[in-house]
Amino acid sequence: MTAMSVAILFSGQGKQTATMGADLYAEDGNYRQVIDAANQQLNWDLTAPLDVQDPQRVPVAIAAMSLGIYAALQPSLPQPAALLGLSLGEYSALMAAKAFSMTDGLKLVADRARYMQRASVMNPGMLVAALKVTPALVAQACQAGQAVGQAYPANYNLADQVVIGGDVRGVRAAMASLTAQGVKRLVPLQVSAASHTPLMAPASTALAQRLTHLTVRTPQLPVWSNTTVTPFTATTLKATLVDQLVQPTHFYADLQALAQRGVETFIQVGPGSDLAKFAKKAVPTARVMNVATSEDLAAVRTNLKAVTR
């Protein structure tokens, strides 16, 4: 395996658990060092059981866990060709690439969560995952939804899986349109914020102001944006993060772009395994792994040793 063949995928929200990372903290010194540093910088206790409904602590805990796993893996990894996260995971990836410090990044993640929570109160919304669809069919359904409310594509996760977001009237109308077109699988997500849609405009505005106080540097590794499907630069980073809140994510296109550039191995770090599953579906020939537990970490280290011999 060459240094140009590995991409690290940083988890977004949705698969957090109350005790996530506890086994890693107990068993891995590199992981523990990251969490201890985060606790000291935030004056929080990320080793305590997590309230999985806490809108501000959950994203910080996920980002810290993802960075801890990345640190634990680094001695076993060749230099990654790229880093990629989904939504929140982009912040973890940018911290891992030293585009901004972990101290600044985790505080920014907490503030972003607060802005999004406030926006969801101002503009209540919903998200629904549509499976076995095409982007054109989703666009048509969103047009139907916009006749009565607000409905937009929010996440292009796979070629045939798109999340729709908007207000309740608009999204339900979009769902009815898809059902009428024969779509069988529509899965409402357990969220109240229509992330990556115009309903997050108040959060986007607040984030833009907040980012004026953030010091950014050129990422040390390429970090691919879900919004632009290109790597972040120091010049574009702030504007892209602002846009990310109100524009759809293009995770599938990012995976395709990395595969076209020779990435053969995708490793998800953080809670859950959805991104690894997306990678396997988007790039069937890829080697895919994920690390969410100490058992996963041991297995991935073993696999990396085997393929680098």
UniProtKB/TrEMBL annotation:
Catalytic activity, reaction form: holo-[ACP] + malonyl-CoA = malonyl-[ACP] + CoA
Protein name: Malonyl CoA-acyl carrier protein transacylase
Group of enzyme by EC: transferase
Enzyme Commission identifier(s): 2.3.1.39
Family designation: Belongs to the fabD family.
One MF term in the entry's GO annotations: [acyl-carrier-protein] S-malonyltransferase activity
A single cellular component GO annotation: cytosol
PANTHER family named in the record: MALONYL-COA-ACYL CARRIER PROTEIN TRANSACYLASE, MITOCHONDRIAL
Keywords (A to Z) from UniProt: Acyltransferase, Transferase
GO biological process terms on file: fatty acid biosynthetic process
Native organism: Lactiplantibacillus fabifermentans DSM 21115
All copies of domain Malonyl-CoA:ACP transacylase (MAT), residue ranges: 9-304
Active site: S87, H196
